[in-house]
Amino acid sequence: MKLNKTEYDPKLNSYEVVIAGGAMIGTAIAWFLISNKDFNGKILVVEKDPTLEFSSTSRTNNSIRQQFSNSLNIEISKFSSNYILNFKSYMENDERIPEIMFNKIGYLYLADNIEKINLLKQNQKLQNSLNIPTKIYDQNSLLEKFPYLNVKNLIGGSYNNYNEGYFDSNTIFSWWKKKAAEKGVEFIKNEVTEIALDSKKINAITLKDGSKLKIGSFVNATGTKASTFDKTHFLRIPVEPRKRYTFIFKTEVKINNSVPLIIDPTGIHFRSDGNYFLCGCAPEFDDTAAYDDFTIDYELWEEKIWPILANRIPDFERIKLVNAWAGHYAFNTFDQNGIIGPHPEFINFYFANGFSGHGLQQSPAIGRALSEKIIYKKYKTLNLKPLSPERLIEKKPFLEQAII
Ligand SMILES: Cc1cc2nc3c(=O)[nH]c(=O)nc-3n(C[C@H](O)[C@H](O)[C@H](O)COP(=O)(O)OP(=O)(O)OC[C@H]3O[C@@H](n4cnc5c(N)ncnc54)[C@H](O)[C@@H]3O)c2cc1C
Protein backbone atom coordinates (compact mmCIF):
# COMPACT_ATOMS: atom_id res chain seq x y z
CA MET A 1 0.00 0.00 0.00
CA LYS A 2 1.32 3.43 -0.87
CA LEU A 3 1.54 5.63 2.19
CA ASN A 4 -0.11 9.02 2.22
CA LYS A 5 2.88 11.34 1.93
CA THR A 6 1.62 14.25 4.00
CA GLU A 7 0.69 12.07 6.96
CA TYR A 8 3.86 9.96 7.19
CA ASP A 9 6.72 11.88 5.65
CA PRO A 10 8.70 14.70 7.18
CA LYS A 11 8.86 17.71 4.88
CA LEU A 12 12.55 18.37 5.56
CA ASN A 13 15.61 16.22 6.12
CA SER A 14 16.98 18.30 8.98
CA TYR A 15 15.29 19.67 12.13
CA GLU A 16 16.35 21.80 15.05
CA VAL A 17 14.33 19.57 17.40
CA VAL A 18 12.77 16.15 16.85
CA ILE A 19 10.38 14.87 19.52
CA ALA A 20 9.53 11.16 19.61
CA GLY A 21 6.05 10.70 21.10
CA GLY A 22 3.20 13.08 20.37
CA ALA A 23 0.96 12.59 23.41
CA MET A 24 0.63 14.95 26.40
CA ILE A 25 4.31 15.40 27.23
CA GLY A 26 5.72 15.51 23.68
CA THR A 27 3.05 17.96 22.57
CA ALA A 28 3.56 20.18 25.65
CA ILE A 29 7.26 20.43 24.82
CA ALA A 30 6.54 21.23 21.17
CA TRP A 31 4.12 24.00 22.16
CA PHE A 32 6.40 25.61 24.75
CA LEU A 33 9.30 25.56 22.30
CA ILE A 34 7.50 27.03 19.31
CA SER A 35 5.73 29.70 21.35
CA ASN A 36 8.99 30.95 22.86
CA LYS A 37 10.21 34.03 20.99
CA ASP A 38 13.82 32.99 21.58
CA PHE A 39 13.38 29.74 19.69
CA ASN A 40 14.31 29.63 16.03
CA GLY A 41 14.07 26.53 13.97
CA LYS A 42 11.93 23.69 12.78
CA ILE A 43 10.30 21.13 15.07
CA LEU A 44 9.14 17.66 14.11
CA VAL A 45 6.90 15.54 16.36
CA VAL A 46 6.92 11.86 15.43
CA GLU A 47 3.99 9.84 16.83
CA LYS A 48 3.58 6.22 15.86
CA ASP A 49 -0.15 6.16 16.61
CA PRO A 50 -1.83 9.57 16.42
CA THR A 51 -5.09 8.05 17.72
CA LEU A 52 -3.11 7.63 20.99
CA GLU A 53 -5.25 4.57 21.67
CA PHE A 54 -2.77 2.83 23.96
CA SER A 55 -0.92 5.85 25.34
CA SER A 56 -1.09 6.68 29.05
CA THR A 57 -2.55 10.03 28.05
CA SER A 58 -5.71 8.41 26.64
CA ARG A 59 -6.23 6.18 29.65
CA THR A 60 -5.54 8.70 32.36
CA ASN A 61 -7.74 9.77 35.29
CA ASN A 62 -7.22 13.53 34.79
CA SER A 63 -6.55 14.31 38.44
CA ILE A 64 -4.24 16.92 39.93
CA ARG A 65 -3.08 17.38 43.49
CA GLN A 66 -0.82 19.58 45.56
CA GLN A 67 -0.37 17.02 48.34
CA PHE A 68 3.12 15.77 47.53
CA SER A 69 5.94 15.25 50.02
CA ASN A 70 8.65 16.80 47.84
CA SER A 71 8.70 20.58 47.46
CA LEU A 72 9.64 20.36 43.77
CA ASN A 73 6.59 18.23 42.96
CA ILE A 74 4.46 20.76 44.86
CA GLU A 75 5.96 23.67 42.91
CA ILE A 76 5.35 21.77 39.66
CA SER A 77 1.69 21.24 40.58
CA LYS A 78 1.30 24.85 41.70
CA PHE A 79 2.38 26.02 38.27
CA SER A 80 0.22 23.43 36.51
CA SER A 81 -2.93 24.39 38.43
CA ASN A 82 -2.30 28.06 37.72
CA TYR A 83 -1.81 27.14 34.07
CA ILE A 84 -5.10 25.21 33.93
CA LEU A 85 -6.98 28.07 35.60
CA ASN A 86 -5.50 30.69 33.26
CA PHE A 87 -5.14 28.58 30.14
CA LYS A 88 -6.45 31.20 27.73
CA SER A 89 -4.01 33.87 28.89
CA TYR A 90 -1.12 31.38 28.72
CA MET A 91 -2.24 30.61 25.15
CA GLU A 92 -1.74 34.17 23.92
CA ASN A 93 -5.32 35.17 24.85
CA ASP A 94 -6.51 33.41 21.74
CA GLU A 95 -10.25 34.18 21.51
CA ARG A 96 -11.02 30.66 20.33
CA ILE A 97 -9.84 29.08 23.57
CA PRO A 98 -12.44 28.08 26.17
CA GLU A 99 -12.19 27.95 29.96
CA ILE A 100 -10.79 24.63 31.13
CA MET A 101 -13.08 22.58 33.35
CA PHE A 102 -11.34 22.13 36.72
CA ASN A 103 -13.49 20.45 39.35
CA LYS A 104 -11.81 21.17 42.68
CA ILE A 105 -13.14 18.31 44.75
CA GLY A 106 -9.84 17.95 46.64
CA TYR A 107 -7.86 14.91 47.74
CA LEU A 108 -8.32 13.10 51.04
CA TYR A 109 -5.53 10.80 52.26
CA LEU A 110 -6.70 8.38 54.94
CA ALA A 111 -4.50 6.93 57.69
CA ASP A 112 -5.13 3.79 59.71
CA ASN A 113 -1.97 3.86 61.83
CA ILE A 114 0.40 6.23 63.59
CA GLU A 115 3.15 6.03 60.97
CA LYS A 116 0.75 7.04 58.20
CA ILE A 117 -0.77 9.96 60.09
CA ASN A 118 2.68 11.17 61.11
CA LEU A 119 3.75 11.14 57.48
CA LEU A 120 0.63 13.09 56.51
CA LYS A 121 1.38 15.61 59.27
CA GLN A 122 4.95 15.97 58.06
CA ASN A 123 3.72 16.50 54.48
CA GLN A 124 1.11 18.97 55.69
CA LYS A 125 3.83 21.10 57.32
CA LEU A 126 5.74 21.30 54.06
CA GLN A 127 2.58 21.94 52.02
CA ASN A 128 1.45 24.73 54.38
CA SER A 129 4.90 26.33 54.14
CA LEU A 130 4.33 26.49 50.37
CA ASN A 131 0.87 28.06 50.83
CA ILE A 132 -1.11 24.88 50.25
CA PRO A 133 -3.78 24.91 52.99
CA THR A 134 -3.87 21.14 53.69
CA LYS A 135 -5.61 20.29 56.96
CA ILE A 136 -5.27 17.26 59.22
CA TYR A 137 -8.45 15.61 60.51
CA ASP A 138 -8.82 13.19 63.39
CA GLN A 139 -11.39 10.39 63.36
CA ASN A 140 -14.24 12.56 64.71
CA SER A 141 -13.64 15.56 62.51
CA LEU A 142 -13.29 13.26 59.49
CA LEU A 143 -16.78 11.92 60.13
CA GLU A 144 -18.14 15.39 60.65
CA LYS A 145 -16.74 16.65 57.35
CA PHE A 146 -17.37 13.48 55.32
CA PRO A 147 -20.47 11.92 56.94
CA TYR A 148 -20.75 9.21 54.26
CA LEU A 149 -17.41 7.66 55.35
CA ASN A 150 -16.96 4.63 57.57
CA VAL A 151 -14.14 5.85 59.83
CA LYS A 152 -14.02 2.82 62.14
CA ASN A 153 -10.48 1.66 61.40
CA LEU A 154 -9.13 5.16 60.69
CA ILE A 155 -7.20 7.48 62.94
CA GLY A 156 -7.30 10.48 60.63
CA GLY A 157 -6.49 11.95 57.28
CA SER A 158 -5.30 14.99 55.36
CA TYR A 159 -7.53 17.00 53.06
CA ASN A 160 -7.07 19.93 50.71
CA ASN A 161 -9.26 21.20 47.92
CA TYR A 162 -7.21 24.22 46.99
CA ASN A 163 -6.30 23.55 43.35
CA GLU A 164 -6.81 19.81 43.69
CA GLY A 165 -9.35 17.74 41.81
CA TYR A 166 -9.79 16.79 38.17
CA PHE A 167 -9.58 18.73 34.95
CA ASP A 168 -10.18 18.55 31.22
CA SER A 169 -6.74 17.64 29.90
CA ASN A 170 -8.05 16.80 26.46
CA THR A 171 -8.91 20.41 25.63
CA ILE A 172 -5.45 21.52 26.74
CA PHE A 173 -3.81 18.83 24.62
CA SER A 174 -5.91 19.68 21.55
CA TRP A 175 -5.08 23.39 21.73
CA TRP A 176 -1.39 22.80 22.28
CA LYS A 177 -1.35 20.63 19.18
CA LYS A 178 -3.55 22.89 17.06
CA LYS A 179 -1.68 26.09 17.85
CA ALA A 180 1.74 24.44 17.58
CA ALA A 181 0.79 23.19 14.10
CA GLU A 182 -0.45 26.66 13.15
CA LYS A 183 2.97 28.03 14.10
CA GLY A 184 4.71 25.48 11.91
CA VAL A 185 5.39 22.41 14.07
CA GLU A 186 5.13 19.29 11.91
CA PHE A 187 3.26 16.33 13.41
CA ILE A 188 3.71 13.09 11.51
CA LYS A 189 2.56 9.53 11.91
CA ASN A 190 5.76 7.51 11.97
CA GLU A 191 8.10 5.82 14.41
CA VAL A 192 11.62 6.62 15.56
CA THR A 193 13.51 3.34 15.39
CA GLU A 194 17.15 4.25 15.72
CA ILE A 195 19.42 7.02 16.83
CA ALA A 196 22.94 7.61 15.55
CA LEU A 197 25.48 8.70 18.13
CA ASP A 198 28.99 10.06 17.85
CA SER A 199 31.21 10.45 20.90
CA LYS A 200 29.25 13.36 22.38
CA LYS A 201 26.07 13.88 20.39
CA ILE A 202 23.11 12.45 18.58
CA ASN A 203 23.67 13.16 14.90
CA ALA A 204 20.67 11.66 13.23
CA ILE A 205 17.62 9.52 13.74
CA THR A 206 16.04 6.86 11.59
CA LEU A 207 12.31 6.47 11.07
CA LYS A 208 10.47 3.21 10.52
CA ASP A 209 10.42 3.62 6.74
CA GLY A 210 14.21 3.92 6.75
CA SER A 211 14.40 7.67 6.23
CA LYS A 212 17.19 9.43 8.10
CA LEU A 213 16.93 12.92 9.58
CA LYS A 214 19.66 15.22 10.81
CA ILE A 215 18.82 16.76 14.15
CA GLY A 216 19.89 19.55 16.47
CA SER A 217 18.26 18.11 19.60
CA PHE A 218 16.22 15.00 20.26
CA VAL A 219 13.51 14.56 22.91
CA ASN A 220 12.44 11.14 24.15
CA ALA A 221 8.74 11.46 25.06
CA THR A 222 7.83 7.88 24.21
CA GLY A 223 6.03 7.00 27.47
CA THR A 224 6.21 3.29 28.29
CA LYS A 225 8.61 2.73 25.38
CA ALA A 226 11.18 5.10 26.87
CA SER A 227 13.94 2.54 27.18
CA THR A 228 13.11 0.34 24.21
CA PHE A 229 12.08 2.60 21.33
CA ASP A 230 15.61 2.69 19.96
CA LYS A 231 16.88 -0.55 18.39
CA THR A 232 20.38 0.09 19.69
CA HIS A 233 19.00 0.21 23.26
CA PHE A 234 21.89 2.45 24.05
CA LEU A 235 20.16 4.96 26.25
CA ARG A 236 18.23 2.65 28.54
CA ILE A 237 16.48 4.04 31.58
CA PRO A 238 14.51 2.15 34.26
CA VAL A 239 11.04 2.72 32.80
CA GLU A 240 8.56 -0.07 32.09
CA PRO A 241 4.82 -0.49 31.50
CA ARG A 242 2.75 -1.22 34.62
CA LYS A 243 -0.95 -1.87 34.37
CA ARG A 244 -3.48 0.30 36.18
CA TYR A 245 -7.25 -0.29 36.17
CA THR A 246 -9.96 2.34 36.13
CA PHE A 247 -13.51 1.37 37.09
CA ILE A 248 -16.46 3.73 36.59
CA PHE A 249 -19.60 3.01 38.60
CA LYS A 250 -22.88 4.55 39.60
CA THR A 251 -24.67 4.30 42.91
CA GLU A 252 -28.25 3.42 43.64
CA VAL A 253 -28.39 5.80 46.61
CA LYS A 254 -27.58 9.37 45.68
CA ILE A 255 -24.36 10.47 47.39
CA ASN A 256 -22.76 13.88 47.39
CA ASN A 257 -21.27 14.37 43.90
CA SER A 258 -18.15 16.06 45.16
CA VAL A 259 -16.61 13.14 47.00
CA PRO A 260 -12.89 14.02 46.99
CA LEU A 261 -10.27 11.75 45.53
CA ILE A 262 -9.91 9.45 48.53
CA ILE A 263 -6.73 7.45 48.96
CA ASP A 264 -7.78 4.51 51.08
CA PRO A 265 -5.16 2.89 53.35
CA THR A 266 -5.54 -0.26 51.20
CA GLY A 267 -3.95 1.67 48.31
CA ILE A 268 -6.98 1.95 46.06
CA HIS A 269 -8.35 5.40 45.30
CA PHE A 270 -11.72 6.69 44.19
CA ARG A 271 -13.53 9.96 43.61
CA SER A 272 -16.73 11.33 42.19
CA ASP A 273 -16.72 11.83 38.45
CA GLY A 274 -19.70 14.01 37.60
CA ASN A 275 -22.75 11.87 38.37
CA TYR A 276 -20.59 8.74 38.47
CA PHE A 277 -17.65 7.53 40.53
CA LEU A 278 -14.19 6.55 39.40
CA CYS A 279 -11.94 4.05 41.13
CA GLY A 280 -8.28 3.40 40.28
CA CYS A 281 -6.05 0.55 41.37
CA ALA A 282 -3.08 -1.64 40.52
CA PRO A 283 -3.40 -5.35 39.66
CA GLU A 284 -3.06 -7.82 42.49
CA PHE A 285 0.54 -8.54 41.47
CA ASP A 286 2.03 -5.28 40.30
CA ASP A 287 4.77 -6.21 37.86
CA THR A 288 5.97 -5.36 34.33
CA ALA A 289 3.05 -5.56 31.91
CA ALA A 290 3.28 -6.85 28.36
CA TYR A 291 3.02 -3.88 25.97
CA ASP A 292 -0.16 -5.25 24.42
CA ASP A 293 -1.87 -6.41 27.62
CA PHE A 294 -4.86 -4.20 28.36
CA THR A 295 -7.16 -6.91 29.71
CA ILE A 296 -9.32 -6.01 32.69
CA ASP A 297 -9.50 -8.15 35.81
CA TYR A 298 -13.22 -8.14 36.62
CA GLU A 299 -12.71 -10.76 39.31
CA LEU A 300 -10.44 -8.34 41.16
CA TRP A 301 -13.21 -5.76 40.96
CA GLU A 302 -15.88 -8.15 42.30
CA GLU A 303 -13.80 -9.92 44.93
CA LYS A 304 -11.46 -7.23 46.25
CA ILE A 305 -12.15 -3.70 45.06
CA TRP A 306 -15.89 -3.48 45.50
CA PRO A 307 -15.75 -4.85 49.10
CA ILE A 308 -13.10 -2.24 49.96
CA LEU A 309 -15.28 0.51 48.50
CA ALA A 310 -18.37 -0.74 50.32
CA ASN A 311 -16.44 -0.89 53.56
CA ARG A 312 -15.28 2.71 53.23
CA ILE A 313 -18.62 4.13 52.03
CA PRO A 314 -21.50 1.85 53.05
CA ASP A 315 -23.71 3.39 50.32
CA PHE A 316 -21.33 1.76 47.83
CA GLU A 317 -22.94 -1.59 48.75
CA ARG A 318 -25.35 -0.98 45.91
CA ILE A 319 -23.47 0.13 42.84
CA LYS A 320 -23.37 -0.76 39.17
CA LEU A 321 -20.21 -0.92 37.13
CA VAL A 322 -20.75 1.11 33.95
CA ASN A 323 -17.29 1.22 32.37
CA ALA A 324 -13.74 -0.01 32.93
CA TRP A 325 -10.37 0.20 31.22
CA ALA A 326 -6.77 -0.76 31.74
CA GLY A 327 -3.93 1.62 31.00
CA HIS A 328 -0.17 1.55 31.40
CA TYR A 329 1.86 3.80 33.63
CA ALA A 330 5.34 4.56 32.25
CA PHE A 331 6.62 3.30 35.56
CA ASN A 332 10.00 4.47 36.78
CA THR A 333 11.18 1.47 38.82
CA PHE A 334 13.99 3.52 40.40
CA ASP A 335 11.91 6.14 42.23
CA GLN A 336 8.54 6.58 40.43
CA ASN A 337 9.18 10.15 39.36
CA GLY A 338 9.90 11.90 36.09
CA ILE A 339 13.36 11.58 34.51
CA ILE A 340 13.84 14.95 32.90
CA GLY A 341 16.66 16.74 31.15
CA PRO A 342 19.72 16.08 29.01
CA HIS A 343 21.63 12.82 28.96
CA PRO A 344 24.80 13.26 31.03
CA GLU A 345 27.04 12.39 28.03
CA PHE A 346 24.96 12.96 24.91
CA ILE A 347 23.86 16.45 25.73
CA ASN A 348 21.49 16.99 22.82
CA PHE A 349 19.43 13.95 23.89
CA TYR A 350 16.68 15.01 26.31
CA PHE A 351 14.62 12.70 28.49
CA ALA A 352 10.99 13.43 29.40
CA ASN A 353 10.08 10.04 30.79
CA GLY A 354 9.05 7.88 33.73
CA PHE A 355 6.20 10.01 35.05
CA SER A 356 4.40 7.00 36.51
CA GLY A 357 1.02 8.21 37.85
CA HIS A 358 1.48 11.99 37.78
CA GLY A 359 2.68 13.01 34.32
CA LEU A 360 -0.54 14.49 33.09
CA GLN A 361 -0.75 17.13 35.79
CA GLN A 362 2.95 17.87 35.40
CA SER A 363 2.85 18.37 31.64
CA PRO A 364 2.64 22.21 31.60
CA ALA A 365 5.62 22.53 33.96
CA ILE A 366 7.62 19.88 32.10
CA GLY A 367 6.89 21.47 28.72
CA ARG A 368 7.98 24.87 29.98
CA ALA A 369 11.11 23.63 31.78
CA LEU A 370 12.40 21.38 29.03
CA SER A 371 11.87 24.07 26.40
CA GLU A 372 14.01 26.41 28.53
CA LYS A 373 16.71 23.79 28.87
CA ILE A 374 16.78 23.23 25.10
CA ILE A 375 16.76 26.94 24.20
CA TYR A 376 18.89 28.48 26.98
CA LYS A 377 20.78 25.38 28.17
CA LYS A 378 19.52 26.15 31.66
CA TYR A 379 16.25 26.22 33.61
CA LYS A 380 14.94 29.77 33.96
CA THR A 381 11.79 29.27 36.00
CA LEU A 382 11.52 26.01 37.93
CA ASN A 383 14.83 24.23 38.42
CA LEU A 384 14.21 20.58 37.55
CA LYS A 385 17.79 19.47 38.18
CA PRO A 386 16.71 17.15 41.04
CA LEU A 387 14.76 15.17 38.41
CA SER A 388 17.72 14.85 36.05
CA PRO A 389 18.96 11.45 34.82
CA GLU A 390 22.24 11.98 36.73
CA ARG A 391 20.47 10.70 39.82
CA LEU A 392 20.27 7.25 38.22
CA ILE A 393 24.05 7.14 37.90
CA GLU A 394 24.60 8.60 41.36
CA LYS A 395 22.00 6.16 42.72
CA LYS A 396 20.26 8.99 44.56
CA PRO A 397 16.50 8.55 44.33
CA PHE A 398 14.25 11.60 44.17
CA LEU A 399 12.34 11.23 47.41
CA GLU A 400 8.58 11.44 47.08
CA GLN A 401 6.52 9.63 49.70
CA ALA A 402 3.07 10.45 48.32
CA ILE A 403 2.97 8.10 45.34
CA ILE A 404 -0.41 6.98 44.01
C1 LIG B 1 -4.82 4.56 34.33
C2 LIG B 1 -3.97 5.80 34.45
C3 LIG B 1 -4.38 6.85 35.26
C4 LIG B 1 -3.60 8.00 35.36
N1 LIG B 1 -4.07 9.05 36.10
C5 LIG B 1 -3.35 10.19 36.17
C6 LIG B 1 -3.86 11.31 36.86
O1 LIG B 1 -4.96 11.28 37.40
N2 LIG B 1 -3.10 12.43 36.91
C7 LIG B 1 -1.87 12.51 36.32
O2 LIG B 1 -1.21 13.54 36.42
N3 LIG B 1 -1.37 11.46 35.62
C8 LIG B 1 -2.08 10.32 35.54
N4 LIG B 1 -1.60 9.25 34.83
C9 LIG B 1 -0.28 9.37 34.21
C10 LIG B 1 -0.35 10.22 32.96
O3 LIG B 1 -1.48 9.86 32.19
C11 LIG B 1 0.93 10.03 32.16
O4 LIG B 1 2.04 10.30 33.01
C12 LIG B 1 1.01 10.96 30.96
O5 LIG B 1 -0.15 10.87 30.18
C13 LIG B 1 2.25 10.59 30.16
O6 LIG B 1 2.23 11.23 28.90
P1 LIG B 1 3.38 10.91 27.86
O7 LIG B 1 3.15 11.80 26.71
O8 LIG B 1 4.69 10.95 28.56
O9 LIG B 1 3.20 9.37 27.50
P2 LIG B 1 2.11 8.63 26.61
O10 LIG B 1 0.78 9.25 26.78
O11 LIG B 1 2.19 7.17 26.91
O12 LIG B 1 2.60 8.89 25.14
C14 LIG B 1 3.77 8.35 24.60
C15 LIG B 1 3.57 8.30 23.10
O13 LIG B 1 4.80 7.92 22.47
C16 LIG B 1 4.47 7.18 21.31
N5 LIG B 1 5.67 6.42 20.92
C17 LIG B 1 6.26 5.40 21.59
N6 LIG B 1 7.37 4.99 20.94
C18 LIG B 1 7.49 5.79 19.85
C19 LIG B 1 8.45 5.86 18.79
N7 LIG B 1 9.51 5.05 18.75
N8 LIG B 1 8.27 6.79 17.82
C20 LIG B 1 7.20 7.62 17.85
N9 LIG B 1 6.26 7.59 18.83
C21 LIG B 1 6.41 6.69 19.82
C22 LIG B 1 3.31 6.31 21.75
O14 LIG B 1 2.55 5.88 20.63
C23 LIG B 1 2.54 7.26 22.68
O15 LIG B 1 1.46 7.89 22.02
C24 LIG B 1 -2.36 8.09 34.68
C25 LIG B 1 -1.94 7.05 33.86
C26 LIG B 1 -2.74 5.91 33.73
C27 LIG B 1 -2.28 4.80 32.83
Account of the protein in words:
There is one protein chain. By secondary structure, the protein is an alpha+beta fold. It folds into 2 domains: 5-60 and 169-238 and 334-394, 3-Layer(bba) Sandwich (FAD/NAD(P)-binding domain), CATH 3.50.50.60; 104-165 and 240-332, 2-Layer Sandwich (D-Amino Acid Oxidase, Chain A, domain 2). The chain is built from 10 helices and 19 strands. Strands 1, 2, 9, 10, 11, 12, 18 and 19 form an 8-stranded mixed sheet that branches. Strand 15 and strand 16 form a beta hairpin. Flavin-adenine dinucleotide (FAD) binds next to helix 2, strand 2, strand 13, strand 17 and helix 9.
Note the main attributes of this structure.
single chain, 404 residues, alpha+beta, FAD/NAD(P)-binding domain, D-Amino Acid Oxidase, Chain A, domain 2, 2 domains, 8-stranded mixed β-sheet, 10 helices, binds flavin-adenine dinucleotide
> Structural class, judged by helices and strands?
alpha+beta
Distance between the termini: 45 Å
Number of helices: 10
CATH architecture of the largest domain: 3-Layer(bba) Sandwich
The shape is globular
Rg over CA atoms, rounded to whole Å, is: 22 Å
| CATH class term of the largest domain | Alpha Beta
Helix content: 25-40%
Number of extended strands: 19
Overall pLDDT score: 95
Annotated CATH topology of the largest domain:
FAD/NAD(P)-binding domain
List the ions, cofactors and other small molecules found in this model.
flavin-adenine dinucleotide
Within CATH, the superfamily of the largest domain carries the name FAD/NAD(P)-binding domain
Q: Write down the secondary-structure element order.
A: HEHEEHHEEHEHEEHEEEEEEEEHEEEHH
Major beta sheet summary: 8 strands, mixed
Beta-strand proportion: 25-35%
Low-pLDDT stretches are none
Count of the separate structural domains: 2
